[in-house]
UniProtKB/TrEMBL annotation:
The keyword Membrane does not apply. InterPro entries: AAA+_ATPase (IPR003593), ABC_transporter-like_ATP-bd (IPR003439), ABC_transporter-like_CS (IPR017871), P-loop_NTPase (IPR027417). Keywords: ATP-binding, Hydrolase, Nucleotide-binding. Pfam families: ABC_tran (PF00005). SUPFAM superfamilies: P-loop containing nucleoside triphosphate hydrolases. One of its GO terms (molecular function) is ATP hydrolysis activity. Residues 6-233 form the ABC transporter domain. It comes from Sistotremastrum niveocremeum HHB9708. This is p-loop containing nucleoside triphosphate hydrolase protein.
Length: 233
């Protein structure tokens, strides 16, 4: 049997050391998967993505290609393979250009892969209606939709991670722009120039989930269940 790209095994999370948000969550993510994660507001979707990115403490095991993050040179390196793309990137310091340079420098220090094209995120963002000048403006001065598109364009355009953890990636976008972003994200996992092999995608839109997903998980009462006849987890 081929090894899963990402495995969650009996994962649980508490937010104050005693109140459980969810428990007993187990699933695998394989190459080609676009795993749609749904559930009511407050059901724990963002918290689960943050656990998968090792941004939250959790119980159980989360393995990337069968190994824990420590075997990839530590959690910061792991996070470049399994990348969380936040819903509100305006909480980042400084401007998008500085963020892009930080990511590029970090990748250069890893030194393993051919360097990604630094212009590609700017080009992708422009195709989504982002003026290149916005890259030099403070995150805090950008609209939610502008910041969201820029953060996504860095994740997709540099294509360094194998798994993108997308937290409502089109929540701040109009329908037309949302369709463009959906197209780019879903084709990224088929692109030869990209390392991206799978997506986990939080959405509140059932229609979007059906359009983009190859599999689906629904969070409810602190657990997840697979959804739909063709979407077995
Ligand atoms: N650090 C924290 N302190 C207190 N409560 C927290 C903390 N982190 C998460 N929670 C609570 O855990 C629950 C799950 O939050 P989470 O953001 O994961 O939900 P969600 O399903 O992503 O919600 P939404 O769809 O509204 O984005 C919520 O009730 C939230 O208030």
């Amino acid at each position: 049997m081929t090894e899963a790209l990402l495995s969650a095994k009996d994962v649980s999370c508490q937010f104050d050391g005693k109140t459980t948000i969810f428990s007993g969550i187990s699933f695998d993510v394989n190459p080609g998967d676009i795993l749609v994660l749904s559930g009511k507001s407050g059901s724990g979707k963002t918290t689960l993505l943050k656990c998968l990115a090792h941004l939250n403490l959790y119980g159980g095991k989360i393995l990337y290609r069968g190994k824990p993050p420590t075997e990839y040179g530590g959690i910061p390196v792991y996070r470049t393979h399994v990348l969380y793309v936040p819903q509100r990137p305006s909480l980042l310091p400084s401007n998008p250009r500085a963020f892009l340079n930080t990511v590029l420098n970090f990748n250069a220090r890893k030194g393993k892969n051919a360097p990604p094209d630094p212009d590609r995120p700017v080009d992708i963002a422009e195709s989504w209606g982002i003026d290149p000048e916005l890259w030099d403006r403070d995150w805090a001065s950008l609209s939610g939709g502008e910041a969201q598109r820029i953060a996504l364009s860095v994740a997709v355009g540099l294509g360094m991670a194998e798994i993108l953890l997308l937290d409502e990636p089109t929540s701040a976008l109009d329908a037309e722009t949302s369709a463009l972003v959906e197209k780019e994200l879903t084709s990224a996992i088929k692109s030869h120039g990209s390392n991206i092999k799978a997506l986990i995608w939080i959405t509140h839109s059932e229609e979007q989930g059906k359009r983009v997903g190859t599999r689906a998980l629904h969070m409810e009462s602190g657990h997840v269940e697979s959804v739909g006849a063709e979407n077995h987890v």
